[in-house]
Amino acid sequence: MKVTDSFIIDASRKNVWEVFMDVEKLASCLPGCKDLIAKSETEYEANMEVKTAFMKVNFKANGFLKEAIEEEELNVEMLGKPMKLAGQFKTTMKVKLEELEPNQTKINYDMNLQMTGRLASLGDVLMRGTVKKSAGEFAENVQSLFTPVE
User: Fold this and answer.
1) Does 150 fall in a domain?
2) Contact 16, 97 (CB under 8 A)
3) In a domain, 34, yes or no
4) Spatial contact of 38 and 61, defined as CB atoms under 8 Å apart
5) What is the spatial distance between Cα 15 and Cα 21, in angstroms, rounded to a whole number?
6) How many domains are contained in the chain?
7) Residue-number span of the structural domain to which 68 is assigned
8) Which pairs from 44-50 meet CB under 8 Å and 24+ separation?
9) What is the chain's mean pLDDT, rounded?
10) Nearest-5° angle of CA 27, CA 28, CA 29?
């Protein structure tokens, strides 16, 4: 399943990049992320919970930062297994940061998600909706880091 989309954050490209490179801040923005641990500068381990239309799926995932061009682009890969379902998934994602204005950044992403086993039986349509919803929540969470508290 391939998903290509974008969203805009009201913050400088430099500040958005800093969030993406900070494990604690990034974890706080990821919907369903129970914890995210840096195993090295390029490898991460996460416990996640994904809510679909009719069930919750808990999984353990390992993420790998494959390439990073500072303040411009990053390529990541994530491998994971659900805790109680047979199957696994592999996600590759390219993220590009585009400065629209000094304090406005467009995040473009291309994601390819491959699933096997019972996880795959949930279907493209259901998972596509879940991925889109999670991406929207992620965008809102990142934006909230830059929104002053009143």
Assistant:
1) no
2) yes
3) yes
4) no
5) 10
6) 1
7) 2-145
8) 48/80, 50/130, 50/134
9) 86
10) 90
Q: Note whether residue 123 is domain-resident.
A: yes
pLDDT digits (tens, 9 = 90+) for 40-87: 989 999 999 887 767 788 889 999 999 999 999 999 999 988 887 778
Write b or e for each residue in 106-125: b if 16 or more Cβ atoms lie within 10 A of its Cβ, otherwise e: bbebebebebeeebbebeee
- Structure token digits, residue 71: 């303040």
CATH of the domain at 129: 3.30.530.20
pLDDT tens digits along 95-109 = 999 999 999 999 999
72 domain-assigned: yes
Give the model confidence (pLDDT) of 17-44 as tens digits: 999 998 888 888 888 889 889 899 899 9
Does the global pTM surpass 0.90? no
Residue 36 dihedral angles phi and psi, to the nearest 5°: -135, 120
